[in-house]
Amino acid sequence: MEYLLNQLVNGISQGAIYALMAIGYSVVVGVTGLITFTHGEVIMIGAFASFYIFQFFGNNLILGIAASFIASWLIGMFIYYVCYDRFFEAPSHISLICTIGASMLIKNLAQIYFGPNQKPMLNIIDNKVFRIGVLQISLIQIVILVTVIVLAGILAFFINNTRWGIMLRTVSQDKKAAYLMGVNVRRTAMIGNCIGCGLAGIAGMLISIYYQTLQATMGGPLGMKAFSSSVLGGLTDTRFSALGGLAIGLIENLGITISTASFRDIFAFGFLIAVLIIRPEGFASKKGARP
Amino acid sequence: MNEIIIRLKRFYENHKIITILIGSILLLLMPVIFPKSYIMGIICRILLYMILAGGLNVINGYSSQFCIGYAGFFCIGAYTEAILAVKLKINFWLLLPVAGIFTAVAGLLLCLPTLKLKGKYLALVTLGFSEIVRLVALNWSSLTGGPMGLKGIPVPRIFGIQFKSSLSYYYIFLLLVVVFLFVTRRVINSRIGRAWMSIREDEQAARSLGVDTYKYKALNFMYGAFWAGIAGAAYAPYTRYIDSTFFTLDEGFNILSMVIIGGMGTLVGPMAGSVVVNFLTELLRPISEYRMVAYAILIIAMMWLRPQGLFGASNSILAGRKINKKIRKAKKEVAA
Q1: Pairwise CA distance, residues A201 & A204, whole Å
Q2: How many domains does chain A have?
Q3: pLDDT-based confidence at residue A291 (cuts at 50, 70, 90)
Q4: Cβ of B300 and A109 within 8 Å?
Q5: A9 in any annotated domain
Q6: Is B93 within 8 Å of B156 (Cβ atoms)?
């Protein structure tokens, strides 16, 4: 029971990171309307940016967050111009292949310039463990939860209450109508894509702090997790995507308790396929919604 | 580019018998022309990927269901052959169709619940399926050898000939490619193939014209999976050792990029894609580290300049913006 409860805490903190990635992913998919496979590489770039910042400027979490956000924003701009800008009207598999190509490009360049080996992340946060009854919760987990909640709050405020957020929402609902209303669709799509990528970069920093390692090839499986959490939430809905991320984190960590850690991904993908079979459009499917 | 292809086609149609004759003699004498096993190894790989890319093209190119996790089917075929051959000592020639049928059944099981899913969701499910298959192969140690892999897969033999090196194994791959091309050509030109293509162009229109789209989509998935199983079953005794690292998602992306570069929706496309990609990866070997970088840039450039691929069906929905232009032009002509 005690083990199960602690696994629950681990699941929630890991799910929070997945939720942040999935929020970023659903923002990207929402504004561009096309799925992407570069998300894992963006996460990796964010992790490396914060790693180098921590190495040169010391333990400053805020600076690390800013650095990973800016680095992944720039990568997001690159991805936008390579994969999306020309292909809004083309069939969607073309830009999909483009994102696969771009992800290969970024991954291999990162392997060349950052080195192929695993690097230990610096100890940014003291590994203090708090005990509440039988529950154990570490300081890292608390920092992760707080960061994710704060960021999600900022994003929600941005999307719901600012002019830019309204533009983002119109673009993700209907590009042609947005264009008719005088929204600069291409620029808005680029900014939305970059915001999603920036959130993914911060998630990359958090996950490299959580696992204490980072590697140039770490992006692949994480990108898959972000993709599947976002699909669970219906791809474009940020709130349900966050829920999907939490669910996948929980399922993984609870699945480990009944078997070994090597089956972690089987639980994640099996859960995903099961949900998709029952609800073909994820949690968020509405009756009468546009396909 | 289009002109070169048209000229090649015209040349082939004018001198059909001679080109086929010369081509088949050249293909049969390949091990004599290149007696080095290194070069024959490359050619064997090209032939293997021809089957894989061709099979994926049947799914992606002809019915436009987007399957990304094709490596999962490849994995199932290879492990079926390897396990049955090592543990039960069954003959290779019997196992070849068995592995194919087993993989086709796996494809059916995957697509039965997912027929309702479209585009992105289907792509994700195949992706998850591929990962699950690989992880099961990695972790089910008692059956698949786990991370150690399966060793000592017996080589096929017939009439006392052992297909041991790539020089002789070449003929098995060649036979399979020829059979694949023959059968697929027949299927594509039949009622089934036309149904698949109608689903690709417009699924609702196809259904309204009386095409049972669920049935044909399931059939399509099974057919594609079948050839992945055959390719896997031929691949396992070729290397005589398999483990789960051969069947990662990157392998699936690799096959997919061959299909895309060669062109979807034609029989020649994936063949050309396989030749081009494998040839390029060998050609780029000297710049070792930057090999994959160059490859990635090639994929992106291909999508920018010629989205339907080298030999793609330029008169279908796959060609992207160009088809829109064509339609617009046709509309203008009608209006004028």
Answers
A1: 5
A2: 1
A3: very low
A4: no
A5: yes
A6: yes
Give the number of other CB atoms < 10 A from CB of residue B15: 12
Residues in chain B whose Cβ is within 8 Å of chain A: 60, 66, 113-114, 116-121, 123-125, 127-129, 131-132, 135-136, 138-139, 249-250, 253, 256-257, 260, 289-290, 292-293, 295-297, 299-300, 303-304, 307, 317-318, 320-321, 324
**Which amino acid would we find at residue B268?**
V
Compute the mean pLDDT over every residue in chain B, rounded to the nearest whole number.
81
What pLDDT sits at residue B325? 62
Distance from A233 to chain B by nearest Cα, in Å? 12
The verdict on residue B107 lying in a domain is: yes
* The pair of three-digit structure tokens given for residue B116, joined into one six-digit string: 């309702």
Judged by a CB distance cut-off of 8 A, whether residue A128 touches chain B is: no
Q: Which helix H or strand E contains A120, and what residues bound it?
A: strand A119-120
Chain CA centroid to CA A122, Å: 22
Domain annotation covers residue A286: no
Range of the domain at A71: 2-278
What CATH number does residue A196 fall under? 1.10.3470
Q: What is the ipTM of this complex?
A: 0.81
Are B276 and B261 a contacting pair, CB within 8 Å?
Answer: yes
Q: Which of A89, A93, A100 sits opposite B253 (nearest CB)?
A: A100
> CA-CA distance, A140 to A129, in Å (whole number)?
9
Q: Dig out the tokens for A34 from the structure.
A: 């096309």
Answer yes or no: is pLDDT of A287 > 70.
no
How far B164 CA sits from the closest chain A CA (Å)?
A: 35
Assess whether pLDDT exceeds 70 at residue B334. Answer: no
pTM: 0.83
